[in-house]
Design goal:
The structure is a single chain. The protein is α+β, with helices and mostly antiparallel strands. It folds into three domains: 81 residues, Pseudouridine synthase (2-Layer Sandwich), CATH 3.30.2350.10; 142 residues, Pseudouridine synthase, CATH 3.30.2350; 55 residues, Archaeosine Trna-guanine Transglycosylase, Chain: A, domain 4. Helix content is 23%, strand content 36%. Strands 1, 2, 3, 4, 7, 10, 11, 12, 13 and 14 form a ten-stranded mixed sheet that branches. The protein is elongated and about 70 Å long. The N terminus is likely disordered.
Length: 299
């Protein structure tokens, strides 16, 4: 197999296929990149497809900050069925007719789940409860509750609604939606809560992540394409695309590399990408009380 342009530090924007876990994608990239220093920003369930950000070598230090950015999804929500996993991979636990659900009622339900909300995550998730993953507790049939957490759903748009076939003859509805939300939001839980609010139950039948921060499907490549020609987005270009930029001179760069705090540039809250002469990406910093605090160094 011929591999071209393998870089030591950078991001890979993968269009994840259905059926693979995010960890399995990471394993594939480790083999292609020839290093174990590979990680991802924001897990996608095996059923889900779309944008998965992979960091290689030093770019893994960017991932914790990329994971805090907003995300956009296309999804299909089935009204009339509840599942144990809140998606199509789980066993159906309840069925109720959705024949009474009007477009007006659906839009109203979506409205209650838009904005700054408190969301109880799906129980079949990687959230830890007393040191144990929630999905393992579900499999062990142990009783537990997850606390609601604040998330932001900045957009929740219904594009189309259609009848869905059901062998038992129950009237089901499928709603195609787009969701823009903060990191940590479970689209599965939005489907569950939308169905609960309408009195029908609900779950996801399809989920595709179309954007993570500045990286969208137009930037993404398939695993098959990467196997033909593996390449990374260089770390300086990745940082410039994802964070506000601050250019410093040679002396400021030297001091920052040595851990000396500088006067803040006044860009605002959040991570800032610092560039020295010759487009050299130096660090991620944040502003605190008029000075810079280094979040991660890249020299």
């Amino acid at each position: 197999m011929k591999r071209k342009g393998v870089g030591p530090d950078g991001l890979v924007v993968v269009d994840k296929p259905a059926g693979l876990t995010s960890h399995q994608v990471v394993s594939r990239i480790r083999k292609l990149a020839g290093t174990r220093r590979v990680g991802h920003a924001g897990t996608l369930d095996p059923m889900a497809t779309g944008v998965l950000i992979i960091g290689v070598e030093k770019a893994t230090r960017l991932l914790g900050h990329l994971a805090l950015t907003s995300k956009t999804y296309r999804a299909t929500i089935r009204l009339g069925q509840t599942t144990v996993t809140d998606d199509a991979e789980g066993e159906i636990t309840a069925t109720a007719s959705a024949a009474h659900v009007t477009r007006q009622a659906l839009e109203a339900g979506v409205g209650t789940l838009t904005g700054d909300i408190l969301q109880v995550p799906s129980k079949v998730s990687a959230i830890k409860v007393d040191g144990r993953r929630a999905h393992r507790l579900v499999r062990a049939e142990e009783e537990f509750e997850l606390a609601a957490r604040p998330v932001t759903v900045s957009g929740f748009t219904v594009h189309a609604v259609r009848e869905a076939a059901d062998p038992a003859g129950v009237a089901l509805l499928d709603a195609d939606v787009t969701v823009a939300c903060s990191s940590g939001t479970y689209v599965r839980a939005l489907a569950r809560d939308l169905g609960a609010g309408l009195g029908t139950g609900g779950h996801l039948t399809a989920l595709r992540r179309t954007r993570v921060g500045p990286y969208g499907l137009d930037d993404a490549v398939t695993l098959e394409a990467l196997e033909e020609s593996f390449d990374v987005l260089p770390i300086n270009r990745a940082a410039a695309a994802a964070f506000p930029r601050w250019d410093v001179d040679g002396e400021q760069a030297r001091q920052l590399i040595n851990g000396v705090r500088q006067k803040a540039p006044g860009i605002g809250p959040g991570a800032i990408a610092v560039f020295g002469p010759d487009e050299r990406f130096i660090a991620l910093v944040e502003e605190r009380r008029g000075e810079t605090k280094i979040l991660a160094g890249f020299v």
